[in-house]
Structures are given as C-alpha cells and as structure tokens.
C-alpha cells in the first residue's frame, strides 16, 4: 500500500496552476492508494461546482459547505480522472482562511472508492471565522479494512488552542476505530520530531508508530525548510528547527512493515508545490523482503 500526505497551501500558493499540474502528474506517476491533504481550500465567493458526481465526489458526513469551482481537491480529482485514472474523493471545510478561503481537509483515493467518512472537531473553538478552528477527516476505502484520518494540529505552546487539548480530543474520538482495527493518522502536526517533551513525544508515548522510524529505506524526512506561516514568531523566539523540521507525519496505530518513507515535492524529488513537502510511504506485503 502506498500513502501520501501533503499540506497543500492550495490557492494561497504563487504559480498555483503550474503547481497543481505538477502535483497531479506526480500522483499519476507514483499511484498512491491513499492521499491525505491539508489546507485544501476554495474561494468562498466562487460559483458552486458542477459535475461533482462525475468527479467521484463523496460528501463527508455532516458537511454543509458547498464545493465550489476552484476547490483544490475537486480540480485535482478531475485532472486525475482526465488522465485516465478513476478517483474517489471527499472534502470538509473547517474555517475561513486568509479571510476569503473555505479551508479544510481532503482525501483522494485513485483507482479506489470511498465507502465511509467521519469528521469531527478537535478544537475548543468552533467559530468558522476563527482560523484556529480545527477539524479532522476520516475515511474507509473499498478493499481496505483500515481507517485513515487526516489532521492539521495546533502548536504545543499555543495558549488559546494548545496541541495537547486537541490531541486528547482526537484520541478520544479514535478510541473506537483503534479497538476495531488498524488506524492511520497523517498530516501536519506542527510538532517537530527533533523537539523533546512536546507533541511528537506525546503521540509516541500513546502507542502510535512513526512510519518514518519503521521504514527500511528513508531519507531525512524534513518537510519544512526555512520559516513558514504559523512558525514565524516561534522560530524568532527560540530558533527551533530553522535548518528544517520534520512536522508532517504518517502514524499507524500498530507496528507495521514499511518498505520506504520518502519526502516528495521538495524540489529534489518532484518540484515544490507548497510551503510544506509531502511524505510518501510504501508498506510491505506479508512475507515480502526488500533490500
């Protein structure tokens, strides 16, 4: 199984059209089974999208915000289908970003079908106009028994919406799926793996497996270089991770065999398409050995 996670930055990106094309080309070439996306947005005032059913859209549980024409996931799914690959997808909006974008999370399932969805808040604030509002999106896909969730977490030291409170709510909501089987949790956790005693260590202490650590073959795992939105004040204050941070992760509720974990869209393996790089893993089948 191949899994890709990426914080897309979507319409906020300069040269967006070009970067959308690069993203779709890589997806068609690498053929991930599951694609988890964060910061997936659309213009709040754009016309509503037409042809959603033909694009493979599955409306997420409880989602009321309409999909609009320039929705990043909608456009990506259409382009993947136009390349000859069937694609099922879903999207939720959590908040208004930059004062003009409906922003949320999405899953794309190339050559597959989404059977179930799940979504819920993990933040205490639930005001659509407040950018710290956080939601999580989950899916179960045809042919796969596991549940897959995508998250975009707050910061450990945030006084209003600390990581710890959000994580505790998330774990409470995932207790049932974890008891029933394997759960994959991926996304932007705003928790540098190199910083001790904060979010990364807390997740590991609760039994979650970092697939980067499990991988037989891997690169540095760095998903952010330099200073990006949301980190400017923190990095100015204590210079944490200025050389690069591994803050985008793919976690699994159980120890699994991972053949490889590599960073994508970092300018070396695929062009940059966002202020974050993607994480791409491939698991091993039972009895499969790779060298």
Q: Rg to the nearest angstrom?
A: 18 Å
Shape: globular
Class computed from helices, strands and strand pairing: alpha+beta
CATH topology-level name: Deoxyribonuclease I, Chain A
Gist?
By secondary structure, the chain is α+β, with helices and mostly antiparallel strands. 21% of the residues lie in helices and 30% in strands. The protein has helices spanning 16-30, 72-82, 163-180, 199-205, 211-214, 232-238; strands spanning 2-7, 34-43, 87-97, 101-110, 114-121, 135-141, 147-152, 183-188, 209-210, 215-218, 248-252, 258-264, 278-283.
Kindly describe this structure.
The protein has helices spanning 16-30, 72-82, 163-180, 199-205, 211-214, 232-238; strands at 2-7, 34-43, 87-97, 101-110, 114-121, 135-141, 147-152, 183-188, 209-210, 215-218, 248-252, 258-264, 278-283. The protein has 291 residues and is α+β, with helices and mostly antiparallel strands. It has a single domain, classed as Deoxyribonuclease I, Chain A. The strands form 2 sheets. Strands 3-4-2-1-13-12-10 form a 7-stranded mixed sheet. The longest helix has 18 residues, at 163-180. The chain starts with a strand and ends in an 8-residue tail after the last strand. 45% of the residues are buried. The model is unreliable at 235-241 and 287-291 (pLDDT under 50).
